[in-house]
Amino acid sequence: LPVDQWITPATTRGEARRLVADAFAAARLDTPALDARVLLCKALDIAAIDLATEPDVAIGPAAAALADMVARRLRREPVARICGRQEFWGLPFTLSAATLVPRPDTETLVEAALKAMRDEGRAGSRLRILDLGTGSGCILIALLSELPAATGVGIDLSPEAARMARDNAAMNGVGERASFLVGDWAAAVKAPFDLIVSNPPYIGTGDIEALAPDVKLYDPRLALDGGPDGLAAYWRVGAEAWRLLRPGGHLFVEVGAGQAGDVGRLFAQHGLEDWVAIRDLAGIERVIHATHRHD
Ligand code: GLN
């Protein structure tokens, strides 16, 4: 049955919650009850607690919006995209079709970079940070939110992503310390940087087809496609890091499962030494940290 025939203004919150969760479960979504709750709260503009405490209220005119959101989710559009928002590092981010949905895995990179700055006693210094392929801006903005004297540049090939990142920086109170440029990697910026970060596209072109539909159909291809072997972007990032890091400066990149050794060795070929892999919360080597050698 089309969604707008079983979600009507007379449907109560409680009924809608159950019907939507059942439809999502039947469609084999991973977290049907959670998705139902989040979309209901978004469509009705209520808090989760209101859904729990007042389930007998009819959903009224929000029915149309809810039916539309449920139909989108049934086509595998991620909840974050439907809501236009995703939290990362405890901060809110607005999304667009031109940006990857921020992933919890990527917080591993933020944590590792911050730890390195603290270990060097430089967390309060006027660090210069460069984020290559900034997307929503989530990595740079999270870092600036924790490093009060730092400034940063985020670069993206997509003008829409750069715009989105700028809005996100302003929304999170770091807009004065961040600038966002459209560009082909770092062609337009000048050395030196203390810290370079990147979550580049790293899926092998031939592996994109096998990704979950939520990713394959909705994350921008530009943010996923890492060329035939998935490593194309790391050559560019390594070359830019060698050119732009100050001696002793740090590079942190996210990598796909199984890519850590290849990426570490590739960076070593660019003169970026002492690389180490850092594991994410699932135990997968997710981040490579390399240092620009002193000489
Ligand atoms: N982490 C994303 C995924 O698993 C890929 C992001 C990327 O290529 N940087 O689909």
What are the main properties of this structure?
295 residues; alpha/beta; Rossmann fold; 7-stranded mixed beta sheet; two-stranded antiparallel ribbon; 13 helices; 9 strands; 41% helix; binds glutamine
Major sheet details = 7 strands, mixed
What is the CATH topology descriptor of the largest domain? Rossmann fold
CATH class of the largest domain: Alpha Beta
- Number of contiguous helices: 13
- Work out the count of structural domains: 2
Helix/strand structural class: alpha/beta
- In the predicted model, the low-confidence regions spanning at least 5 consecutive residues are none
CATH architecture of the largest domain: 3-Layer(aba) Sandwich
Strand content range: 15-25%
Overall mean pLDDT score? Answer: 96
How far do the termini sit from each other?
69 Å
Note the run of SSEs as H and E. HHHHHHEEHEHEHEEHHHEHEE
Heteromolecules bound: glutamine
**Overall outline:** elongated
Fraction in helix:
40-55%
Describe the structure.
By secondary structure, the chain is of the alpha/beta class. The chain folds into 2 domains: 3-75, no CATH class; 97-292, 3-Layer(aba) Sandwich (Rossmann fold), CATH 3.40.50. It has 13 helices and 9 strands. Strand 8 and strand 9 form a beta hairpin. Helix 2 (13-26) crosses helix 3 (32-44) and helix 3 (32-44) packs antiparallel against helix 5 (63-74). The longest helix is centred in the first third of the chain and has 14 residues, at 13-26. The protein is elongated and about 70 Å long. 41% of the residues are buried. The mean pLDDT is 96. Glutamine is lined by residues 100, 103, 199-203, 211, 215, 224, 254.
